[in-house]
Amino acid sequence: MPRKIRITSFGYLHNTAPPADVVVDLRPYRDPHISPELRDLTARDPQVRQAVMSTPGIRELVDATVADLRTRARRRQSEPLRVAIGCAGGRHRAPTVADAIADGLHTFAKVRVTHRDLRKPVVRR
């Protein structure tokens, strides 16, 4: 039976974290929302992905999370491992990192990614 991992990106400002075995909170990392030119864009836009992935510490976090999830999934082959990746609004950091983690797992497990809040309106702060 193939290993299964379900990743959900979300925004804490929209609702609580979805049920998960592992939660990654990206709020301490630089938020592209602070840049007016990125604020209304999403992780579907290359400028946002570049900004997130060039944030100090993000690539190391992705690599460490992939390694951790591989270890956890090896121990849990019967039911999917549920992972929640959160940031403030769920439009920039969380979906970008969720996709990067999924990319790191695609040869290891069957991965499904859901972006819960990607299409929700920008939270004006």
SSE topology sketch:
Elements: E1 4-11, E2 22-25, H1 36-39, H2 46-53, H3 58-75, E3 81-87, H4 93-105, E4 110-115
Parallel strand pairs: 1-3, 1-4, 2-3
Structure overview:
- Residues 4-118 form the RapZ C-terminal domain.
- The chain is of the alpha/beta class.
- The chain has one domain (4-115).
- The chain is built from four helices and four strands; from the N terminus they run ββαααβαβ.
- The protein has a four-stranded parallel sheet with strand order 2-3-1-4, covered by helices on one side.
- Helix 3 crosses helix 4.
- It is globular, with a radius of gyration of 14 Å.
Summarize the structure.
This protein is α/β, with parallel strands linked by helices and 125 residues long. The chain has helices spanning 36-39, 46-53, 58-75, 93-105; strands spanning 4-11, 22-25, 81-87, 110-115. The chain is built from 4 helices and 4 strands.
| Percentage of residues assigned to helices | 25-40%
What's the number of structural domains? 1
Rg on CA atoms, Å: 14 Å
Please work out how many helical segments DSSP would assign.
4
- Which shape, going by the Cα principal axes? globular
Q: In whole angstroms, how far apart are the ends?
A: 46 Å
Summary tags:
125 residues, alpha/beta, 4 helices, 4 strands, 20% strand, globular
